[in-house]
Amino acid sequence: MTRYSREPENPAKSVKARGSYLRVHFKNTREVGRAIQHMPLRRAIKFLKNVIEHKEIVPFKRFNGGVGRKAQCKQWGACQGRWPEKSADFVLQLLKNAEANAEVKSLDADHLVVDHVQVNQAPKTRRRTYRAHGRINPYKSSPCHIEIFLTEKETVVPKPSDVEEPTKKKESKKKLKRQKMMDRGE
Q1: Residues 6 or more apart from 172 whose CB is under 8 A from it?
Q2: CB of 78 within 8 A of CB of 31?
Q3: Rounded to the nearest 10 degrees, how much is the dihedral formed by the CA atoms of 53, 54, 55, 58?
Q4: Measuring CA to CA, which residue among 40, 23, 31, 43 is closest to residue 124?
Q5: Which of helix, strand or coil describes residue 118?
Q6: Exposure of 31 by Cβ count < 10 A (0-12 exposed, 13-18 middle, 19+ buried)?
Q7: Which SS3 state, helix, strand or coil, does residue 176 take?
Q8: Which of 95, 60, 55, 54 is CA-nearest to residue 76?
Q9: Range 135-158 average pLDDT
Q10: Average of pLDDT values for 90-119?
Q11: Is the Cβ–Cβ distance between 46 and 107 less than 8 Å?
């Protein structure tokens, strides 16, 4: 049994999935994980499939050096983003694995939410590349560990609308002063 960074709050209503030493870029995978955090499972799977087809974009907020600006990022409130297909595919496989784990636990897949996503760096694999004048430089990959928790959420009951009081329009101090002066003048 593998160790996770933390345990879910309600283990009976949660499922876990984990991938170790995955040969996919850490930085791209971290941004993909951040994008699907707190999404419902069905929406997260649809989002990752759309990323692979370049219909939706993953916003790059931390590891964004040299990342181009894209118009699709506007919906995320960002300006830089990419479509990391390999990272999206690896995370999609983990989500499907977690969904299968939920089936075994007899949890309702339609109420599952991505509760926790963590991407850690794994040890770099070393290779070498040959350069001009007989030199050799390192040629490393940046693999990662990914862990995902899915939690079954109860349906949210909206507040009844009949007890809401009408919102009062906010008036500026300047307008209130002017109104007071007009009232004194009359």
Answers
A1: none
A2: no
A3: 120
A4: 23
A5: strand
A6: buried
A7: helix
A8: 60
A9: 90
A10: 96
A11: no
In the chain, DSSP assigns E strands to 14-22, 58-59, 81-82, 112-121, 125-130, 136-141, 144-152
- Tell me whether strands 136-141 and 112-121 are parallel, antiparallel or unpaired: unpaired
| Residue with tokens 């496989």, as numbered in its chain | 93
The Cα–Cα gap between 87 and 33 comes to: 9
With vertex at residue 170, the alpha carbon angle to CA 166 and CA 174, rounded to the nearest 5 degrees, is: 155
pLDDT in tens, 59-82: 999 999 999 999 999 999 999 999
Identity of residue 175: K
Q: Which two tokens stand for residue 72?
A: 């699709």
Those residues whose C-beta lies under 8 Å from the C-beta of residue 58, and which sit 6 or more positions away, are: 28, 31, 32, 35, 51, 81, 82, 83, 84, 88
Phi and psi torsions of 181, nearest 5°: -65, -40
* DSSP code of residue 61: S
